């Protein structure tokens, strides 16, 4: 009741968005502003044309008031993303390294600060979408490797993990239950197993 | 001459020590993660763990204190703004700053609420289990539940048993009315499933090696993302080498 069941073992995309907005980003202020002491983070005194790092949500507020322009992170441009896309194609087995919240951050920046980005936003959107799709296909292919004890998912971002989570957890839980029953019964059925093997051999000889 | 040397030495020493202390301070401020990030981690860990994690006493006192400080500041500033509205002392900048602070308080408020709600949902689910667990625990800064949570748990259980009794338990044979019956091979107490797989991220430089049974082991690299059984990495969450995601 306190926490609806759809929230209990998974995160909402909006919550991931929230977490991503805490990351720091460089801004180029247009006006000066006194420093602000926030809980857990201090925003330094801003001076015009002096780069500073602030949380994304602050940058978005300042941007909406035309108080600053946002310096896009070094991975958010066409050349870099295209490179990554090609890397994804070249290496079908691994995910290329992208920032932990690349989807969320690019989404926020494309929506709120499109004019600060170095490339036209429709091109960026399309290459981001390409990247996302190829990674989605890969992660779906990877589901074949699921087993009951562990898997490794290096290179995936939080949002992508979150998409996989409900399926992966249910499957692993089921596999674990099956595994548990086989290990506890294994000892009992060992004798029967031998008999089966004998029969197989017998058949083979007949052929 | 000798005295000169001494003074130089002393100066040198002073210089060095002040530099060292500066460095130390810098290191401290950069290495202690700020309470905001800590709260986010605590919330995510709590959210993804199948069982309830020890209550973050220190962190929560700090956060709550900071929130009330900021709220007081906002109140005072608004009062100040109202008083000086006509004279034009209050600039748009000042208002913008207040708005940013307000947003910050709201954001952290939301995190605190989410953290507590997640904990309450687990207390609801595993009431009897945690009543048994905390039965002989003393109230301290390392206890599993906070004082309010313990109180809530007992109240909740009382109301629940009353409801069950009034609705149907009084019409049942006495032997079937126990809510914490463990006879008959099946325990009626709902306990958290600690073998559930969870998604984790290793955040320590030193590799962690966890046993997988049958001589198999798995080494967790820094920043690696894995899915493993919760019971295997439980103690690493407590020391913060591993975070749930």
Report the end-to-end length of chain A measured between terminal Cα atoms: 64 Å
The CATH architecture of the domain at 193-245 in chain B is 3-Layer(aba) Sandwich
Report on the biggest sheet of chain B.
Answer: 3 strands, antiparallel
Shape of chain A: globular
Kindly identify the CATH topology of the domain at 5-144 in chain A. Ribosomal Protein L9, domain 1
Describe the main β-sheet of chain A briefly: 3 strands, antiparallel
Number of strands of chain A: 6
Helix content of chain B: 55-70%
Q: Could you name the CATH topology of the domain at 193-245 in chain B?
A: Ribosomal Protein L9, domain 1
Number of helices of chain B: 7
What's the CATH class label of the domain at 193-245 in chain B?
A: Alpha Beta
Compute the average pLDDT of chain A.
83
Output the structural class of chain B.
mainly alpha
Low-confidence stretches of chain B: 19-31
Helical amount of chain A: 55-70%
CA(first)-CA(last) distance of chain B: 65 Å
Q: Name the CATH class of the domain at 5-144 in chain A.
A: Alpha Beta
Encode the helix/strand succession of chain A as letters.
HHEEEEHEHHHEH
What would your notes on this structure say?
The complex is a heterodimer of chains A (207) and B (245). Chain A is mostly helical. Chain A has a domain of 140 residues: Ribosomal Protein L9, domain 1 (3-Layer(aba) Sandwich). Helices cover 56% and strands 9% of the residues of chain A. Chain A contains 7 helices and 6 strands; from the N terminus they run ααββββαβαααβα. Chain A has a 3-stranded antiparallel beta sheet with strand order 4-1-5. In chain A, helix 3 runs parallel beside helix 5 and helix 4 packs parallel to helix 6. The longest helix of chain A is centred in the last third of the chain and has 49 residues. The C terminus of chain A is likely disordered. In chain B, strand 2 and strand 3 form a beta hairpin. Chain B contains 7 helices and 5 strands, in the order ααααααββββαβ. A 3-stranded antiparallel beta sheet of chain B has the order 4-1-5. A two-stranded antiparallel sheet of chain B has the order 2-3. Chain B starts with a helix and ends with a strand. Chain B has a domain of 53 residues: Ribosomal Protein L9, domain 1, CATH 3.40.5.60. Chain B has 245 residues and is mainly alpha-helical. Helices cover 58% and strands 10% of the residues of chain B. Classes of the chains: A mainly alpha (207), B mainly alpha (245). At the A-B interface, helix 2, helix 3, strand 6 and helix 7 of A face helix 2, helix 3, helix 4 and strand 4 of B. Strand 6 of chain A pairs antiparallel with strand 4 of chain B.
